[in-house]
Amino acid sequence: MNQDEIDAFEKINGQLESVYVEVSSLSKKNPNDAVSKFKLGFVNALLIAANDVLGDDYRPAEDFSVFDVDSLPTTSDVAFVCGQYLSCLEKLRSDNIESEFGEWYWVINKRRSESFTKPPEKLKKR
Amino acid sequence: MEIPHVPIFLFLIAPTLNRDDPDLGCAELQSPLCNGIVVRSFLLFIGEILTIIRPRLTDHFGIPISQEKADFAIPFLDEDLPLYVDPFLLWKSPSQQDQALHQSMIYAFRSLITKGSQSERIAKLQKISECSEVGLGESATRRGVKIGQELAKSILEHFEVSKQKMGTDVEHIEEVQLFVDKVSKDRISDFACVLLKSFIVDFTLDQCGKYGIPCQKTTILDLYDDRKDVFKNIEVEVPINPNDGKPILFVPKRWLRFSPWIGYEDYFKNHYLKQYVEEGAPHPGRVEILNFNRDNYGVIDRYIKNREKSFADCKNDPLFSTIPVVSAKRLLAAISKLPSGKTNNADKKYEDQLCRLLPSLLYPHLDFAMEQSRTDSGAHIRDLVFYNNKSIGLLSDLWDKYSCRQIVFELKNVKELERDHINQINRYLKESFGSFGILVTRNEPTKTIQRNLIDLWSGQRKCILVLTDSDIDMMVNVFESKQRDPIEVINKKYVEFMRACPS
User: Strand B366-376 relative to strand B379-388: parallel, antiparallel, unpaired?
Assistant: First the structure.
């Protein structure tokens, strides 16, 4: 990954996390409720950007790129998909970071950079 | 032969067609007016306009307008709209035009009841007592009758006595109901319509131009000319009722209410009963109350003044009101608890609840036409019929691809859909329904039934969608959350169905 890709990653990851938190809470309240066209358009824009960042290797599913507005996705659909994308983004990040003396850094152009990042999620859980 | 404007052409040839002709709709049209010309492409359309369920004028001419968007109450062709012109809505209107119309109506009325000999005044009152062109009221035939001479005389006497006692002129023509028997809200509405007919004709012409509604030259009777204090007939181009050839006039929605702001029902319930009848005492009859009113003009005066003061609460009634969200949720809960089948009349309860729920969920995209019951092989079947007004892309598609002028929903409280159920609705798909229908049932159809539906589309291009409990649940959810429109659930089912069909 290069610096631009990392910047794009951090932006999209933050936005998707925010959407995920919001939609998850709606989903718990009413999983069968539809998502408004405006919100869906916004989520789709994020997914398009996320697809670019992830590339073919990291995308959650080959046959899914964005939501079909006519299919009337529910809040639980959107929460599920956002969760999948966040997992894949985390996998991409985990594969592009290194630790040194307990700190984690991004690997830019195959070399450890000075840009800090958080530890991989799977390590945090342990 | 050059074929004229399509609706006029259809109007001309429709009476010449033999509707029982088994070939109608699939063979050449042999009409004396067409000299045997082949008009194959119009046949399906003609079949539809002749058999629209509870036809409205716009549906007859194939002009899809939703009632919500139209400024006028779309008239039915064979029955009245159960609404009335409330003159008070003009009186309280912020629009100078409406206020001026109210004023001119009152001046005209005063003039009618004061100028000329008694026989002339009676004749004039009789003339303004019926306005069948607007089709408002409760008549099942769009035709009302004028008042008799005796009633006209009673009305005149009331105003003479009233002026002597009160020393004032009439300010609201609605007050007649409170003094004279056999004068009700529909009569007040008719008085107003005839006295405002000149404006109503202009309004109709304007709306016809706006929506392209075909008009024909005809004579409108009894337009009141207040400068000369005479009634006159005018030649004008307005829509014609194809059923009886009579003219149809449109009334602005903003003037309509189910009952007038100043009216007998309101006076009796909210004024008279509270102030002049002790609790538990028997309610007096109408004639007794009218006699009381005639002996106590001050009571009516105070009542009218009170109604004038509370003018801000007076609103026109919509032609259709949706049920509140809480009622929709209650109905959904009741549907969910119902067992499938006919145990304890579950099928009828299911139909009743859906008949109350669906029109509200689908408004304003679909205007509710009617519910109808029929018996198919001994089984009671309830359908809901909606007018297709092409208000969204899906509805335009149904209109264009399936010739669906009206959408039928067939309700089936069964655990599992069977081939017979599909056959039943399939037999129904013709004429105004075109080739599209919706089955509402409890559970997802089996794979065999889904295959049947797809085969039906592949073979006959007939599209039957199935809505289940979970779809109704989603419709109610979006009805509550307002995130999307409930009709989009139908769009979703349509998209899913089309994806399953062979390309």
Answer: antiparallel
Contact (CB, 8 A) for B434 and B398: yes
Amino acid present at B376? D
By Cβ distance, the residue of B470, B483, B495 closest to A34 is: B483
What predicted TM-score, i.e. pTM, was given to this entire model?
A: 0.79
* CB-based contact, B491 to chain A, within 8 Å: yes
Q: For B82-110, b where at least 16 C-beta lie within 10 A, e where not — what string?
A: ebbbbbbbbbbbeeeebeebbebbbebbb
Asked if A32 and B473 come within 8 Å (Cβ–Cβ), the reply is yes
The CA distance from A98 to B484, in Å, is 45
Tell me the residues of A at the B interface, defined by beta carbons under 8 Å apart: 30, 32-37, 39, 68, 70-72, 74
Q: Quote the CA–CA distance of B457 and A118 in Å, as a whole number.
A: 56
Tell me whether residue B261 is exposed, middle or buried, using C-beta atoms within 10 angstroms of its C-beta: 0 to 12, 13 to 18, 19 or more.
buried
Report which of B139, B11, B130, B20 is spatially closest to residue B78, judged by C-alpha positions: B139
Question: In angstroms, how far is CA B137 from the centroid of its own chain?
Answer: 10
ipTM over 0.90: no
- Give contacts of B492 with chain A, Cβ < 8 Å: 70-72
pLDDT recorded at residue B382? 67
- What pLDDT does residue B374 have? 65
The H or E element containing residue A114 is: strand A111-117
Averages of pLDDT over runs of 10 residues in chain B (503 residues) are: 43 43 36 36 40 87 91 92 95 96 93 90 93 87 85 90 71 91 92 95 96 95 86 94 93 95 93 87 90 89 93 92 94 95 90 94 91 63 86 94 93 93 89 92 96 95 96 94 94 95 87
Q: Given B470, B481, B492, which is nearest A71 (Cβ)?
A: B492
Six-digit token string for B436: 């599209």
- Partner-chain residue, chosen from A32, A36, A70, that has the shortest CB–CB distance to B474: A32
